[in-house]
Amino acid sequence: MSEQHPRGWRFLSTLRRGAALVTAGLLVAPVASVPALVSAPAAQAEMWRSSQFWLEDYGVTEAWETSRGEGVTVAVIDTGIDASHPALEGAVVGGTDVSGGGTSAGGPVQQTATEHGTLVASLLAGRGQPSEDSGTEQETLQEMSEEEWDEWFDDFLADLEDTYGEDWEEEVDQELLDEFYETRQFPGMDELDEDQPEQDLPGVDEDRPAGVVGVAPEADLLSISLVLEDPNPHGPSTEDQIAQAVTWAVDNGADIINMSIGSGMQDWPETWDEAFLYAEENDVLVVAASGNRASGHYSVGAPATIPGVLTVAGVDEARNISAESSSQGIAIDIAAVSEPLVGALPGGGYAMWTGTSGAAPIVAGAAALVMSAHPELSAQEVKHRLLSTADSAGSDGIDPEYGHGVLNVAEAVSGEVPAFNAADYETLQEWIRIHRRAEVDTDSHEDIPEDSGVVAGPEGEPRDLPRAADTRTAQDWAGPLTLGAAALAVVVLMTVAVVHLLSRRDGSGQHD
Predict the structure, then answer these.
(1) 116 catalytic residue (yes or no)
(2) Protease: present as a keyword of the record (predicted)?
C-alpha cells in the first residue's frame, strides 16, 4: 500500500459485511429532499442484496410467500427512472415527462438529483440482477493498470473524507481497507458467498438473486419525470408539474402513486386540490415522504400534509427515529427504514443513500403487496391494513415521529386487522368542504328579487336599505315588539299610580 494510505483504518464499520464502498450524505434541493451520492464503482451485486436488511427484518420475504405485487401499478413521480438498469429490467411499463426537458418515456431528466428517481424505483420494485452480471465491476478493477488503480483508490479515499470529514479514518477498518487495496477484491465476498446462497431469496426468480430487490418485485411502474429546481429551465413550474403528474398517473392506470418529494411548506397550492381529489375519487393511494431534517425540513411539508395521503417517516436499522432523515408532525402515518439504504443508479451502478425519500417507496411497495393479495380492498382499506398492523413505537396513540408505528409488511399482507371504519380517516374531499368553502369570488352576487321593492343604486354605490315597515324577519320584529311591551307596562304603572293617588285624595276629603 502506498505511503498516501497509512494502515490503521476501520473499513465502514457501520455498514453490513463490508458491502458498501459507497457512502451518502444529504443536500438541500428546491422542493425535494434528496441524497447527495459520493460514489465509487458499484460492488458486486450480491453485496448490495446482502445490505437490504429490511427485506427480512420488516417481514417482506415472508410476505412474498403470499404476494409479490403482481397486478398492481405504481406511478413514481420523481426525476425519472433509468428503465435499462439491470435491476429494473421489465419493471417500467409506461411513462411521461411533465418538465418539458425529459423524454416521453419518463427517463432521468438532468438536474441536481438526476439519480433520485432510479434509486426510489429500485427500492419499490427492483427485480434484482442476474448473477452472471454481478462480477462486472470487480473485473473492471482487476483490469486497471497500477497507475489507474492508484488514481481510482485516491479518489475513493477522497470520497470517504468528503463524507465523514477529517476524522473519517475512525470509520473504516484497517485490515479490510488494506486487503481491498492489495487485492482489488471487494472485502467479505467469500463470507458473502457462504452466507447468502442464491436459494435464500424467496419470491425472486432463481436467475435474479442479487442486486437491489424491491419490496414489490413484480409490481409494474409508471415513470413520471419532473424537474425539482425552481425555476425550471424547461418551463412548467413545480406546482404545475405535480398537478399534471398526479392527474396523468390516475388517467394511466396507477393504483398507487409514490412521491418521494416535499416542499417544506405545510400548505399547498389550490391547484393541487383538484389533482389529489381526482386521485382520491378514483381510489388511488398516494404515498409521500415526510421530508428530511438535514435539509432544514423539521416539520412535515406538502404533499405529505394533504389529507388522505399516506405519510412516511424514517428510522435507522435499530428502529430509532432518524436524527437527520425524518421530519415530524401530526401528518405522520407510519415509519419505515430510511438509513442505511441501497439503490440503483442510472447507468447500471448502485449506491448507498439515506432519507425518507427511500422510506416512502418501501411503504408504497408494501401497499402494492397488500393490494395484490387483497384486490377487493379500497385504497383507504389498504392504508388501514398498513397502519393497524404497524409495530408499536413512540408514545401511545399516534406519535408525531412514528405515526402509528413501524411498518410490518408480513402482518399487513396476512395478519388480522380491526374492522375498517371510514370515519377514522380524513379525506381531502371533506377538508376542501370545510376549509375552502369560505373562499368565494368577491365579484359574485345574488340578483335582487323583483318583488322586494328594493331599487339598486348606481354601480359602485350601496343599495338603498329596506324601510322598517318592510321588515319581515323574526329579528326585525324583535325590537319593535320589545319596545311596545315596555311602553304598555309604563302606561299600566302610571294608571295604577293615578288611581291610587285619587283614592287617597277622596279619603282625605271625607275626614275633613
Answers:
(1) yes
(2) yes
